[in-house]
Amino acid sequence: MESLWQDCLLHFERELPSQQFQTWFKPLELLRIDLNGENSKVVLSAPTRFKQNWAKNQFSETLGSWWAQALGTAVELEIEVSSATDHQDSNQADNPPNPTGGASRPTRFSRQRCRRWCFTHGYWTTPDPRQGNYS
To answer: What is the residue extent of each domain of the chain?
Structure first.
């Protein structure tokens, strides 16, 4: 089972740009493969809901096709959120992390660095924070 997952990762590492692979595929984990004749299921785990939704929307068909070919049967692909990070993600959405790292003097953290940090960590919706909404 683990060797199939490694083959899958290797395949997509060759097919996709490095940054795309590192961002979206590398964090995924194989939870289980249920082989029940025609009702086979492959269950993957994503570290966050955002990555789960993105992987489902962008790659579920491609991943499903790869697994169907590898297993020689039709496959239902399911992507779950890791239970360990599920609670952490919902808590993070309510209380985003402090960009200053909890420093008592946030003025040491320049506006530009703060905007860069927010964009890098997904809190800005556009590359130029002056033109977008804060999400």
So the answer is: 2-87, 96-135
- First-to-last C-alpha distance (Å) of the chain: 39
Q: Does domain 2-87 have CATH number 1.10.10.60?
A: no
Residues pairing with 43 in the sheet: 32, 78
Helix, strand, or coil (residue 99): coil
Task: Identify the H or E element spanning 6.
Answer: helix 2-15
The structure's pTM equals 0.58
Do residues 31 and 44 make contact, with C-beta atoms less than 8 angstroms apart?
yes
Please give the full DSSP string across 39-94, using - where no structure is assigned. Answer: -EEEEEEESSHHHHHHHHHHHHHHHHHHHHHHHTS-EEEEEEE-HHHHHHHHHHHH
pLDDT along the chain (135 residues), means of 10: 85 89 88 82 91 89 88 87 58 48 51 70 60 52
